[in-house]
Amino acid sequence: MESLKALDKGLVERMHEGMLRIRLFEETQSRLFKAGEQEGFTHLYLGEEAIAVGACLALNPDDFITSTHRGHGHMIAKGGDFKKMFAELYGRTPGACLGRSGSLHIADRGIGMLGANGLVGDGNPIAVGAGYSIRLRGTKQVVASFFGDGASNQGTFHESLNMAASFDLPVVFVLENNGMSCGTITASVCKVLQNLGDRAVAYGIPGENIDGMDVVEVYRTVGKAVERARAGKGPTLVNCQTFRHHGHFEGDIDVRTPQQIKEAQSHDAVADFEKRMLRDGLATEKSIRERRERIQALVDEAVDFARGAPKAPAADAMKFVYAE
Amino acid sequence: MRQLQYNEALNEALIEEMTRDEKVILIGEDVGAYGGVFKVSKGLLERFGPERIRDTPICESAIIGTATGAALMGMRPVAEISFIDFILLAMDQIGNHVAKIMQIAPGLLELPMVIRTEGGVGGGIGCQHSQSLEALFAHLPGLKIVMPSTPYDAKGLLKTAIRDNTPVMCIENKKLYALKGPVPEEEYFVPIGKADVKREGKDITIIATSFMVHEALKAAEALEKDGISAEVVDPRTLVPLDVDTLVASVKKTARALVVHEAVERCGIGAEISAVLNEKAYDYLDGPVLRHAGLNVSLPQNWHLEPVCIPSADSIREKVKSILG
Ligand SMILES: Cc1ncc(C[n+]2csc(CCOP(=O)(O)OP(=O)(O)O)c2C)c(N)n1
């Protein structure tokens, strides 16, 4: 892989920091979930960290993202607050959604995170609408829409790309291609899986097929797409190849064979990036260990905060049906 | 008698009908190697092969449309949409085609298809995976709707549905899949349009659907201690509704309470209440009342779930308030 020396050192550190924040947050959450501290549905982003981090580093703080059922990584990369996130996962009132929306629908408008989503493929049209509002408001913001290879077979994908392309809207469609759609190997229901970026041709917009395990490549490609979007030239589709390390959701019986899972886990964007940093003299074993320890301490602090926070009261169940 | 789980009973219904008639096929997301999200199609891929057990891309609208086209050509497809929440993506196909084709071309076309799906609250998975949307479909003339509450009813009704030449929706419940109950080894059918008195009583009729049948039965047992004898009637089929059985029960008890998980407003309880008002007014000692889900979107928070739907305790309280 290319040398990191040509990159700004601060950027390299932010890339590492961002991926570690997701990795350590979710490894911890996975343990807590297994231990029975949380209930419900939680889909982990482990393995795919380079995509959210590379893409969000190419965005400004006031840009927007739409997310998926696998949304913690996107939220963290966009600047999500650990305490608000863990409180949400524990169903506590200081949660990002006051403890009533959990893992599957976590959102934070304040950082431009328009929401995780329980419906596969439904983030794309919402991103188009956010893009349209940017044009109407004349603000030069950009929207990145994250979605999976499975979602790319929904009607909403095609409808959204065509609409965003026709209106030249400032949207970057970031396809996270882990080759899996829940319990179905996507290649068995989709003939162009490896080159989903080529679908852009059908809508008259640029499409890229890149290595989604390389945070630098994601950052550069999405960066180009963001520039184009900001300049009013319209959307881009970026297909990022990646690997899902865990089952579809925590507690799922993975449809992949143990060898297939092992092979997927052998692709590790965080470990690869750390090797590159060491190789190129941008980190030492010690600096990496210290960064890990510092972030883990933040994660642990957030967990303690969430455990001690008040539970969403029963009366809240009836609230928020209508605007105040 | 032999005990089977609800999902095993459904699995057996599929095996029997697919073995008997090669026109019966199963189509849906993750129905193949994964065995279905709720394991209803476990082992069917090995048994019947990938042409008849068809994994699809994630595209609910096209799944229902494909089943419709196949049914028009004489196949007998069973389409699975794992969570009823996702069926909203296929609403056009169901509302404008499945429910209407036979009435558009009277006598020319039959539509022998089944849509299997599930609803209900459980496990803290939030508002986009917990809805009970049966009333939306009851509002579309042209569909039959069954909602089995026991393994026995599930198998018997699914077999009848597969042999029916009118489209049938079989709405299961996520909390019932692991429920065990008696299922005979020999073949049997449960007729569509026939309610079942699950418990006899003389002071009040509790009309409950799906999982709520079990909560109503528990409540009835507890009410015995309060000196109240409650009859529990499960309509089993919502369309066509077995009005005779409901009226006969109310004639005996002179009181009726309808219980369902779906939100109260415009739920099936409204229809049942209206029908009893029209057909059983003279026998009633008080208004038909409803006890149903709160008119809210369910929070993804397991502490708040029980607040949002009826339970054995709340049913018992409600009955006592009616008779007390
Ligand atoms: C409309 C809809 N259909 C089906 C599902 C069930 N489901 C949840 S995630 C998933 C697979 C999604 O695959 P992909 O888009 O590739 O994302 P990944 O899980 O791989 O991140 C499915 C089928 C759903 N949540 N919503």
Q: Can you give a write-up of this model?
A:
The complex is a heterodimer of chains A (324) and B (324). Chain A is of the alpha/beta class. Chain A has a single domain, classed as Rossmann fold (3-Layer(aba) Sandwich), CATH 3.40.50.970. Chain A is built from ten helices and seven strands. In chain A, strands 1-2-3-7-6 form a five-stranded parallel beta sheet, with helices on both faces. A two-stranded antiparallel ribbon of chain A has the order 4-5. In chain A, a hairpin with a 2-residue loop joins strand 4 and strand 5 (184-185). Chain A is globular and about 50 Å long. With 324 residues, chain B is an alpha/beta fold. Chain B folds into two domains: 3-182, Thiamin diphosphate (ThDP)-binding fold, Pyr/PP domains (Rossmann fold, 3-Layer(aba) Sandwich), CATH 3.40.50.970; 196-323, Rossmann fold (3-Layer(aba) Sandwich). Chain B has helices at residues 6-20, 44-48, 60-72, 91-98, 101-104, 134-138, 151-163, 211-225, 243-253, 268-280, 305-308, 312-323; strands at 3-5, 24-28, 53-55, 76-81, 114-119, 144-146, 168-173, 180-182, 196-199, 204-208, 230-234, 237-239, 256-263, 289-293. A seven-stranded mixed beta sheet of chain B has the order 3-2-4-5-7-6-12, sandwiched between helices. Chain B has a five-stranded mixed beta sheet with strand order 9-11-10-13-14, with helices on both faces. In chain B, strands 1-8 form a two-stranded antiparallel sheet. In chain B, strand 6 (144-146), helix 7 (151-163) and strand 7 form a beta-alpha-beta unit. Chain B is globular. Chain B starts with a strand and ends with a helix. At the A-B interface, loops of A face loops of B. The structure holds thiamine diphosphate. Thiamine diphosphate (TPP) sits between chains A (68-70, 118-120, 148-151, 176, 178, 180-182, 248) and B (29, 58, 60, 86, 89).
